[in-house]
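TEACHING EXERCISE
Course module: macromolecular assemblies
Task: Read the component lines below, then compare them to the predicted structure of the full complex.
Student: A.B.
Group: 4
Components provided:
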Amino acid sequence: MEDVHYILKKYWGYNRFRSLQLEIIQATLSKKDVLALLPTGGGKSICFQIPALAKPGICLVVTPLISLMKDQVEQLKKRNISAAAIFTGMSYAEIDLILDNCIYGHTKFLYISPERLKTELFITRVQKMHVNLLAIDEAHCISQWGYDFRPSYLEIAELRPLLPNVNIIALTATATRAVKQDIQDKLAFKNPVVFQKSFNRDNLAYLVKRTDDKDGALLRLLNRIKGTAIIYVNTRKKTKLISQFLAKNNINTTFYHGGLDNTERTQRQDAWIKGKVRVMVATNAFGMGIDKPDVRLVVHLDLPTTLEAYYQEAGRAGRDEQKSYAIILYDEQDILELKENIEKEHPSIEQLKKVYQQLANYYQLAVGSHDNTAHDFDWEDFANTCRIQPQEAYQAIKKLESEGLIRLNEAFFQPAKLHIAVNHHDLYAFQVAHAIYDAIMKSILRLYGGELFSEFCTISEAKIAQHMQTNPATVTQQLHKLHQLGVVNYVPQTDK
Ligand code: ADP
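Instructor-supplied answer key:
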């Protein structure tokens, strides 16, 4: 087996591994099933590419996006590593040839979209390949609890019996508890080991600034912070408007959203990646799989939809570990909308209990109580029967689901835990977590001058506990949880 340091130097020219890379590589080489949670830009690709290069045989890589695949294949080829990709839209003959090369040729990496895994052509051929590793990129796509669930990812487990001696490495930048567990379950992990890098990004400053003039503030930022930038907005229309505004002010810019046709999107993305365009104004359609190391600034002109999404988007800055900025600009209106959304998304305990109870009644009425299989769940019927607004029911049910009290599966409702009485502890825990998040927001927005994610502010647990009328130990525990989720950057201070 070739030495992994030698491989790193030979193909990438790097002298040392980043933190956890070596540990992940070694565990993968020792045939464990590995789950690697590294922040965006943490260097995930090398974690499966190096073990695959160290051994004879071919590595299968499952990736959700064609663009991601093409990009990685190109990167590998540039380094003289033989790689190929199979995705929807290729002809039978093309695929046939690629698969032949994987069996008889020297292909080291085969990238494949999850939809292709179950085709007969692939299934018969893959068993003839000398597969040395199965790598699952963006592994959170397998979990309904994640923000980017792709049902086709569930098919991956069916590959395992065909490749009984092959271990898995699953990689993601998402690290919520439920998603971590789900990835291991759904991929049928046998000899599991989980690596999780601290999601603190020392080189990345998170700032939240209040302003009554977002356009002006944006211009000043772009003039002060040199280098490539991404500006995120919430609507397609705004991408164009902001881009036009910046262009008028002599800033080299383009815009990107899901409504543009494929060619146009690729052209704009390429121009930005190659540095021909400095500033990309985009909706959240722009992002996954974009490996541009030198993004110096990510600005959100609208409040991000979820904190997890924010973390991903902000994390596109500073992948080269150089000083970079993630900045939210907000105004009065944003705060009003945020408050409204939080209230909507966090129904009161009474409301939850009511919906939970009604759900139990409804389920018994509709399908009988001893049946354990999944059943169609009719939202409108449910809301009608219970005489509540569908929207109200939806929010409450989502909340119950996110707390693991019930399982709700796209179109059907699975009463896995329905017969367990409402667990007051869990409800309490999430009420506290929400209260803490709220308290942190409030304390930082109000007490600490509006720098929501500042690196420099010290938050006192005692103060928050007092504010929430709870004890500091609970606050500390919940802060750890929020930290794990990447919501806050929490570094406990010890008494000197
Ligand atoms: P991720 O998939 O975790 O977002 P990538 O695998 O795309 O990250 O890596 C991000 C960047 O960091 C890439 O440009 C990669 O070449 C670089 N990189 C990865 N590992 C190292 C290392 N050990 N030393 C220097 N640069 C590295």
